[in-house]
């Protein structure tokens, strides 16, 4: 009997020694995987503009240097013409390109062009839609828009964690039409839900609308309370900088001014945690790479298991 009791005690001790407490961030299925992603949004200023000393040829090298210095995994550009796209592709090896001209869905007109690191992501799908009442018709316009406007998107699989799928949207709202900006925001939110469903989404753009205070109607339509069935979106910059500053403007007019509204944003679905968010005011000898400051964010995402 004594021998049997000693055997039971030894067995219990051995079993207790093998049972380790579950580590934080782990589940029964294994360790949670966190993936950091560097995101940049940059209005390039269209390359045929009559900008004198600030013309494209005089600033394009600084623009690429600014992008390389941040080294984004995801880059959303606005006002990108075909020859500007060619320049970026030639000087940014390692990135894949997605873009379509807003006039015809091919090469005519400005693009809301996307670049992403090929060693970080595998492209699964891509598409474009127009900010109009007929979003599938290339070149279409609606409301009071002054110009044709487009949004581009890409579906990406992380090469570091194949379970992680990210949708990346990029756009440019009209600079004159107030109704067009509001309706474009409503359309964009519906499209994010229709295309990405419940999967992680990152949205970049020049929205030509103030983040506030007070927040503009397009901002509220995107970041405000989500209508039923539509995604909740987070403004990465405001999330980390909840108190608006006097100099968080993102249009600089090649003069470096920062006292205007913050009209360039990086938004995300609720799958992400914002680790960093900033306005990039890079310049050299008081010369700027564009008439907009780039905006940046470092995001962390854990895929659903």
Rounded to an integer in angstroms, the radius of gyration calculated over CA atoms is 23 Å
Task: Provide the helix percentage.
Answer: 10-25%
Strand line-up of the largest beta sheet:
5-6-4-3-14-13
Total of helices: 6
First-to-last CA distance: 49 Å
Order of helices and strands: HEEEHEHEEEEEHEHEHEEE
β-strand percent reads 25-35%
Largest sheet: 6 strands, mixed
Question: Can you put this structure into words, describing what you see?
Answer:
With 305 residues, the protein is of the alpha+beta class. The protein has a single domain (32-301), classed as Endonuclease/exonuclease/phosphatase (Deoxyribonuclease I, Chain A, 4-Layer Sandwich), CATH 3.60.10.10. It is 24% helix and 28% strand. It has a six-stranded mixed sheet with strand order 5-6-4-3-14-13. The chain has a six-stranded mixed sheet with strand order 7-8-9-10-12-11. The chain has a two-stranded antiparallel ribbon with strand order 1-2.
Key structural traits:
globular; Deoxyribonuclease I, Chain A; 6-stranded mixed sheet; 305 residues
């Amino acid at each position: 009997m004594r021998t049997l009791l000693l055997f039971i005690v030894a067995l219990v001790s051995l079993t207790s020694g093998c049972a380790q407490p579950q580590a934080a961030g782990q589940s029964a299925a294994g360790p949670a995987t966190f993936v950091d992603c560097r995101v940049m949004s940059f209005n390039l200023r269209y390359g045929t503009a009559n900008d004198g000393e600030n013309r494209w040829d005089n600033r394009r090298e600084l623009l690429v240097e600014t992008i390389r210095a941040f080294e984004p995994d995801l880059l959303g550009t606005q006002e990108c013409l075909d020859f500007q796209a060619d320049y970026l592709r030639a000087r940014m090896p390692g990135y894949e390109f997605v873009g379509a001209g807003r006039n015809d869905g091919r090469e005519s007109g400005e693009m809301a062009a996307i670049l992403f690191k090929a060693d970080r992501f595998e492209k699964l799908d891509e598409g474009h839609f127009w900010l109009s009442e007929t979003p599938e018709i290339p070149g279409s316009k609606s409301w009071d828009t002054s110009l044709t406007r487009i949004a581009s998107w890409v579906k990406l699989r992380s090469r570091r964690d194949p379970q992680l799928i990210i949708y990346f949207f990029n756009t440019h709202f009209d600079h004159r039409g107030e109704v067009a900006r509001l309706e474009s925001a409503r359309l964009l939110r519906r499209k994010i839900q229709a295309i990405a469903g419940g999967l992680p989404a990152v949205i970049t753009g020049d929205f030509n609308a103030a983040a506030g205070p007070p927040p503009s109607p397009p901002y509220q339509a995107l970041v405000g309370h989500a209508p039923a069935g539509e995604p909740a979106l987070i403004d990465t910059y405001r999330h980390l900088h909840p108190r608006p500053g006097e100099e968080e403007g993102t249009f600089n007019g090649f003069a470096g001014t920062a006292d205007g509204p913050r009209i360039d944003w990086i938004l995300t679905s609720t799958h992400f945690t914002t680790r960093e968010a900033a306005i990039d005011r890079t310049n050299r000898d008081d010369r700027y790479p564009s008439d907009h400051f780039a905006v940046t964010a470092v995001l962390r995402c854990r895929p659903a298991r």
